[in-house]
Amino acid sequence: MNEMTKAEPAPAAKPAAKDEVGGSVARAATAPTATRPKSKGRETAIGGTAGIIGLGAGIMTALGKEEAMRRMGKLGSAAAMATLVLWLAGFAAPAAGGEATAAIESKSASKVTGKAEFTELPSGATKVEVWIENATPGTHGIHLHEKGDCSAPDASSAGSHFNPAGNPHAGPADAKHHNGDWGNISIGADGKGHLELTSEMLTVKPGPNSVVGKAVVFHEKADDLKTQPTGDAGGRYGCGVVQAVSGK
Q: What is the number of H-type helices and E-type strands within the chain?
């Protein structure tokens, strides 16, 4: 008689492994080697990098950046490096678009001076701040003009209001207005004034709505916010070319 072959009992299932941050690691089923499609070295490297970045993002979300960075060191240098790259790239918040400034000089025989600062916010809108000195007390129109040229004695070289939107002149609170319509700035008895506003029609980064290469113009009179195309704001008493802040 032929000998009967005894079947070996199946090995006991191994308990789930623990990861280095204290949780259980889910093991994915692995296809037999013979059935796996062959991958080129570059594809394999890209897939591995994507997996590392995904792991880094998950750990950062669960633990917070500082604790995740400490624990990720235990997972190996590649994973730690991927996490560091995510952090440096601003994993938790979008980056702002940059900053720009303008130094406002006297024009039309006035004594007006000042400065303007532009900051593009993460939302995409741009914050505008203007400071004026040595001006006549009262209300004065102030706008962004289309040309970054203040060379003319009366600042006429700055051209018309900046208006890539093609809207009629109005106030900054109106639904349709020039991109450069900032309304008026109030000047106190000391000859100083400050204006702050946020515009969704301006950017600092390059593009059709960028303030860089344009000119800030301070006017003789108040802008009536309705007369076309300038608001009847009178002469140009101050002008400054907008320039991007290096490294911002």
A: 3, 8
Q: Quote the DSSP letter at residue 235.
A: S
- Per-residue pLDDT, averaged over 123-151, amounts to 98
DSSP, collapsed to helix, strand or coil, labels residue 56 as helix
Look at strands 236-244 and 113-120 and give their pairing: unpaired
Q: How many CB atoms lie within 10 A of CB 98?
A: 19
CA distances from 163 to 32, 122, 127, 156, 200 (A): 65, 23, 18, 16, 13
Q: Rounded to whole angstroms, how far apart are CA atoms 12 and 217?
A: 82
**Residues forming a β-bridge with 236:** 219
Domain positions in the chain: 40-88, 98-244
The CATH number, out of the four listed (1.10.4160.10, 2.60.40.2550, 2.60.40.200, 3.40.640.10), of the domain defined by the range 98-244: 2.60.40.200
Residues 6 or more apart whose CB falls under 8 angstroms from that of 191 comprise 133, 134, 135, 136, 137
Where does the pLDDT of residue 93 fall: very low under 50, low under 70, confident under 90, or very high at 90 and above?
very low
Q: Per the structure block, which two tokens stand in for 100? A: 């720009």
Q: Is 50 helix (H, G, I), strand (E, B) or coil?
A: helix
